[in-house]
Amino acid sequence: LFRSVDELLRSADWKDVSKGRTAGALKSYTNPESARLYAEGLERLRRYDTLGAHEVFQKAVAADPKNPIAHSALSGTLAALGYEAKAQEDARLAFDLSSGLPREQRLSIEANYHEALHDWLPAISTCRTLWDLFPDNPEYGLRLARVQDLGGAPKDALATLTVLRTRPGSGQADTGIDLEEAQAALHQSDHARELAAAQRAYRSASRLNARLLMAVALQEQGDALYGLERNEEALAPYRAA
Q1: How far is CA 101 from CA 27, 28, 69, 202, in A?
Q2: The whole model's pTM is what?
Q3: Nearest-CA neighbor of 47 among 17, 70, 27, 2?
Q4: 11: phi > 0 → left, psi -120 to 50 → alpha, else beta; which?
Q5: How is 42-72 classified by DSSP, letter by letter?
Q6: Smaller CB count within 10 Å for the chain: N or C?
Q7: What's the CA dihedral at 104, 105, 107, 113 to 10 degrees?
Q8: Which long-range contacts (CB under 8 A, 24 or more apart) does 220-223 make?
Q9: 218 touches 210 (CB < 8 A)
Q10: Tens digit of each residue's pLDDT (9 = 90 or more) over 127-163
């Protein structure tokens, strides 16, 4: 275990898990165990291990019940696992505890709060503000595209992703961009674009040996082929997923 938050932030593992801004947010907390668990949860999320991330974020909240970023992260995994009421409860708690955080972290937690409530217009507005203020962070562009898509505006989501690809540093988020493009294309019934994006996502996930990401990309390929009425071809990626 790390003996302090500073030791966590200096470690090579941490540098692979989170950018400096997340590290800055964690310096607001004196509980190193909660910070360590939060970092581990982020790593699992980036590998699409939602169930594993959920378990770790639960431990982070137990270690520091007043840690708003841990509550917000836990809310996101609860929503992904289908526990809507619990997700809203943790998102609201995170929002209530976030007043002392820097603006970037407050906005991130606020965006998650609106998303948990399916309040799409303020969620889109808050994510857009985040990306406008911090355009070098591709995660904010991805979040904006996701809430646009979930809010019934897949065309806007695809436009956001097009801009995101031109930004410096977006290459590190290629797999996520491709998967989000596949989803937005699906919601526009553009199955040819969905298939192309899912195939790119699979290739980049394969280079990372990220098996869960590979499975998600394969499922998207199957959905796209099914939408194109190529049902027999869809069976192979579904089975592989």
Answers
A1: 10, 8, 9, 37
A2: 0.82
A3: 17
A4: beta
A5: HHHHHTT-HHHHHHHHHHHHHH-TT-HHHHH
A6: N
A7: 170
A8: 220/179, 220/182, 220/183, 220/186, 220/194, 221/195, 223/186, 223/194, 223/198
A9: no
A10: 999 999 999 899 999 999 999 999 999 999 999 999 9
CA angle 108, 34, 115 (to 5 degrees): 25
Place of tokens 């431990």: 59
**Residue 39 near residue 18, CB atoms below 8 Å:** yes
5/2 Cα distance (integer angstroms): 7
End-to-end Cα distance, the chain:
35
| Rounded CA separation 207/222 (Å) | 20
